[in-house]
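Changelog-linked ticket: adenosine-5'-diphosphate example.
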Amino acid sequence: MNLIEMKNIIKDYYLGETIVQALRGIDLKIEKEEFTAIWGPSGSGKTTLLNLIGTIDEPSSGDLYFNGDKINNITDNNKSEFRNNEIGFIFQTFNLIPVLSALENVMLPLQIMGVSASKAKKEAFMRLSDVELEQYVNSRPDKMSGGQRQRVAIARALITNPSIVLADEPTANLDSKTSNSIIEIMKKINKKDKTTFIFSTHDQRLLDQMDRLIQLEDGRITE
Ligand SMILES: Nc1ncnc2c1ncn2[C@@H]1O[C@H](COP(=O)(O)OP(=O)(O)O)[C@@H](O)[C@H]1O
Ligand SMILES: [Mg+2]
């Protein structure tokens, strides 16, 4: 069964009188354990597509399925439950909390869910070692490089054992060498934990590293 299925998904944004057609009929299937890149230029609809999968936003029409269940009409309560249980997010700008250490940043999602500090700490240590940051558990983000910050963000996205990690241009603020290593780390975790990864990028230099590529242009899949 497909983990994610989109059937004729359309997303329009209304800006006063103007309609922006961000997605113009997306049909897409993603299986469990895939490592998939959404590739396309700025404005092609990548963020919109990831936000729909993460139930941060709703399609204007069309259907979205998770494990065969339709999720585009679920209630707000069920949406937050779905996000907490199934989705990990990674952002272009890392979005770490500056006053917290790497360890505390990674622990946070578990603590919000009510997990005890000692258990959260143990899990966070494990996740930080998955991203090769054992040495930096007590460092604050401003003492870390961009690549290290993004690795903290990856550990934080994984701490709740999500079935899907959605990463929106995770390497956009990194140089090519660091970008490559970030993709390699995500791939390693994908193989080890069987977590499904869907990430977006407009960076042509990363294309070689991708298992599956979905090319977006003007809100349509072109390849
Ligand atoms: N909240 C919004 N309101 C209006 N237009 C939007 C909004 N979000 C995105 N868009 C428009 O939708 C199109 C796709 O945007 P986006 O999904 O952000 O593309 P990408 O992530 O590939 O750069 C663009 O034309 C963008 O300007
Ligand atoms: Mg975007």
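Closing comment: Example verified and attached. The mean pLDDT is 94. The chain has one domain: 2-221.
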